Every structure is written in structure tokens, then in C-alpha cells.
Amino acid sequence: MEVFYYNSSILYIHTPANSSIEGGDITVYERCKAMPIPLFIYLGLQFINMFLGIPANLMVLWLLHKNKGDSSTSDIFILHLAILDVFFCLIPPLEFANKLYLTTSSTWYVLRFFYGVKDSSPLFLSCICMDRYMAVLHPITFTELKDRSHRKVCTVVVWLITLAYAVAKSVDTIPNFAKVFVGMILAAFAFMLFCNVAILRALRQSGPGRDEMHPVKKRAFKMVLIILGIIVFNYFPPVALMPFYDYFTAEVLNCYVHPVAFGFMDFSSSIQPILYLSREKIPNARCCCFKDRGSGNPTNPS
After folding, report:
1. Which residue has the higher pLDDT, 181 or 47?
2. Rounded to whole angstroms, how far apart are CA atoms 253 and 264?
3. What are the extents of the domains in the chain?
4. 50, 90, 269, 291: most buried by Cβ count inside 10 Å?
5. pTM, rounded to two decimals
6. In this model, does residue 14 exceed pLDDT 70?
7. Which CATH superfamily is domain 23-281 in?
């Protein structure tokens, strides 16, 4: 078991070691049979993520399409983040079969690719924060660049980085590749913290009185604060636990710590669209069914 742990260059529950699990004669469940509850918590969160995250992200995509004429400059990043999350939310059936029944190595390549795509979602979150930061702190430059062409280029670059990262994680041949994930999360956290402090400072200085705060700055601060919260509560725990790995046995680390930490990280694929939808006005579907008696136009029943 010691060889199993120390040969792993990447975290086990998201990417197991090449030597002991992939293509071996036992499943992940059999290896963690002494403490199976965290594994089932992880799988449960993944299935909740699938049934909740897919419709929520599709709703986000629908709203972005419907409100195209009144869109925000950040919508292009929100759209691609929703596509990424829908893509990731498709894996629970394969993951369930792989961890409980399969011992082949081929499925791990597919799952690691999906994990790599998910690991890169903080890049899109950082793009949203950058867009809001520019809108509040550098409004003149922001207005000059409002044609969004540079945002499309930024989106393409992020996708290229995401796919390159996912492929590298899938093949699992780069030593200490987990440090890339750690660096990405820490960089995103530091950048979003900087954006929050800068926007908060600008928000407090808006208007002659502190109670007169510009609504655009308020919305920008709220968005960046929500994204920072997602990073702290969903992405930061696996990274924060890394300095303490030497205090855990291999079994506890791989069968208890990692499933819980990564389960809540993956659940961000549902939390992100739900938080977005909570900020948007979702059209009432009943409006199309109720007509104003006098004019024949749709009317809001509420």
C-alpha cells in the first residue's frame, strides 16, 4: 500500500496511481472497503450534480440566448463556463461503474480528461472577475474594449489551455502534475481576492456619501464576491489539505479525505449556475398562457 500512495503523482480519487489501480485486479471500492462511506458520499454528490447541474446549466444557456439583446459583457465567459459544467456533469454513470465494478485502465483516461476540464473552470471564473474589475476600476478602457472581440480571443485561449491541461492529466505521464492544479487554484484565489478588495474600495468611494453606491459597482462586487466564495468553499479545500497529507495514512487519505474534498469541489458545477439563476429574472412560463382580456397581450399573473 505504501508503493500505491507514494507512486501517485496526482490525487487518487480524481486520478489514481498508474501502478495499483489502473488495469489491476481490484476496484476502487474494494481497495476502500474498510471505509466505503466517503466513497458513496462522493458518488452521491456526483449524481446530485448530474441531476441538478445539467438542467441548471441548460437553463443558464437558455437565458443567455434569450437575453442576447440585453447581455452583459461577462456573458460570453458565463456561457462557456456553463458548457464546461454540462460536459463535466455527464460523467457520474461512467464514474460509478469504474469505481465499483471496472478494473480496466481505459476508463481512467476518459475520466481523467473530464477531471482536467473541471479543474480548469477557475480560469473562466477569473475571466469574469477581470471583466467586472475593468468595468469598475477602468471604465474608460472598458468602454473602448466593449466590442467583445478580445473576449472571444480570451475564451479561445482558455479553452486551449483547458484542453491541453485535460489531455496532460489524462495521459498521466508528467511527474508532480498535481502542482499545476494547486498553482491554478491559488492563483485564481489571489486574483479574485485582489478584485474583491479593489472593487470594494471603489464601491465605498462612489458618490459623495458612503450610502450612495453606484449600482453597477454593487453588482460587480456581488458577482466577484460570489465567485470568490465558490473558490473558497469548493476549490480551496483540496489545496488547503495538501500540506497535511503526510499526517494521514494512504488509506485514510485516498479513501476518506480525497472523496469528500473533491466531491464538494465537483459540486460547484451545480452551485455556479444556481447562483447565476438566483440573480436573474426567470420569465414566468405561465405568461404565455394568460392573455390580457382587453388587449390580447401577455400579462404577468402575479
Report:
1. 47
2. 16
3. 23-281
4. 269
5. 0.80
6. no
7. Rhodopsin 7-helix transmembrane proteins (1.20.1070.10)
